What we know:
mainly beta, Jelly Rolls, Immunoglobulin-like, 6 domains, eight-stranded mixed beta sheet, six-stranded mixed beta sheet, 1 helix
Amino acid sequence: MYAVTKMQPSKKKAVLITIFLIIGLQAFAQLPGGSLGDPVINETFGAGATYGTGPALPVTVTNFKYTAETCPQDGLYTIASSLGTCFGGTWQVVPHDHTGDKNGYMMIVNSSYEPGIFYVQKASGNLLCPNTTYEFSAWIMNVMRDSPITANFIRPNITFSIETADGVVLNKPYNTGDIPQGDITDFVKYGTSFTTPSNGADIVVKMINNAPGGLGNDLILDDITFRPYGPTILAGFGGVTSTAERDLCEGESGTYTLKASQAGYADPYYQWQVNKNDGKGWLDINGETTTTLNISFTNAVVNKNQYRMGILNGSALAITCRIYSEPLTVNVNALPVVVVAAKTIVCEKQELRLTATGGSDYHWAGPNGFTSNEQSPVVSYAADNSKDGVYTVTVTIKGCVSTSSTTVSVLPKVNPTISNDVTICEGSTTQLVASGGIYYKWTPSEGLNHDDIANPIARPLVTTTYHVRVDNGGCFDESKSVTVNVLKIPVANAGADIIMNEGETVKLNGTAAGDNVTYYWTSADNLDNPLSLTPNVTPANDITYTLHVQSQGNCGIATDEVFVRVYKKITIPNTFSPNNDGVNDLWNIDQLITYPECVLTIFTRDGRQVYRSIGYAKAWSGNYQGQTLPAGVYYYTIDLKNNTTIRSGWVMMMR
């Protein structure tokens, strides 16, 4: 709240603790009315991490022992930023210090079992003004919860005494009486006053614990201050009774006369101060040392300006001995920053509502005599273009005024049209057409060359429904859609080529794909059903069949061929007579000529090869190397080279 007056660290700490003791010892009653000076000392116990603990106080200050635990036992204390659940919940849960700072420390005390003096501290006299009245104050809480369980617990009861180092008592000792239980809102400010010796002697503070420890007698202290205290100073605008804050608007001019008075100081020395809340704090105003202060503003800038009267009882005293009046405030308030849309666009038959922000009071005026004092008035619940025009809003906050305006346009309702559903072939395109607006947005965008024009070209891969948002510059319609049905183009697959033997029947393995297709085979020779994908065929010779798959949606025709290889049946005679009588002179193997890669080999009885041919373009005449072989039995092998078993046997050659 206040900064501690600069001093040596050791002296500062001593005085801080001294003040703490005085506060703890002070009486329950509050000080009578008067004016205070700025704190010479303001002990907040510091700050640190949330839910953390602070450092111990010097051992010369208290005979209590420090603990880093946030729930100190009897005779212990801690410095902490919060207090959790302690001692079975009989202590209050205190999440932050008196000011609400979650990082601010406070002193948590669990009193000892034995009553007596438990705190003694000296305050150096050179820090204090002689023959001057001071206030000691602190915020104190009985840490016990207010509940039936704690009703009979011991309550803190403290007496304190303020005296010089040689034992002269400076005030009558005070007793707090029993400090009652409460809750977290029950931090209470306690204060008392005393007058310093004229010789600047040191001050000794003694704190006496009147109640024993055990169940109860525990407390929290925070925000301990030590400041000059004197007669009441009255200050106001034009007179000392007019203290209400004054307000100016940014850019305005104004003048004020401040008056102050006091009764109590025989030799008052006056000094006006100003605080512009710019981080510099309170500053003396040069030459303003009477009970009247005239201030003026020209083209005022936004700020909170505060003024107060400071008084010393004699001009020779240090500034730290001053007491001050309550501040008088002149607020220079910013002009309202009006936030309103430059254009307000609504659709015909819709609600027309105006909205502005930035102030506390609003006044609207517009066409056709429209007025309203609402922040967000409704001009019409079913608008038409008679509501078009400029609407002006006057915004006021703290007496400061700004104006702005919005231009209302009521647009006609959108009546869109769209092309009909269409069917296309896979890979083809079609043009979509919408009308009735200025701007268009198609969804989804996949398959479109543009999604933000009225007539995009569509080439979807699959059947797709396109929706269009038609906008006339403020009104829109999203109800229209068109479906592009995509027919798959025909695909024909006649299957793998087939090998068969003459006289066999095989099945063709055709497949067809596409939308709305028919199919048939050509040629129809030796084929049982040309309209079946898997017809049975019995060709006598090699043949090629063609599968035709045709789209009934004009998406073309696809073809594919399958070749059927028909191997002829061969007949192998077992005798021939190469005697040149013109009858059975050659070993003719029927249809072997249809196997152009076949290999025929002939052996004698003892395995000697006497004939070999590839293909059988010329039948065997019974000779070997131009010589006539003798009649007898010969053996043969025939490899047709068509992945069939090699044939073997014998043939009788007769002469």
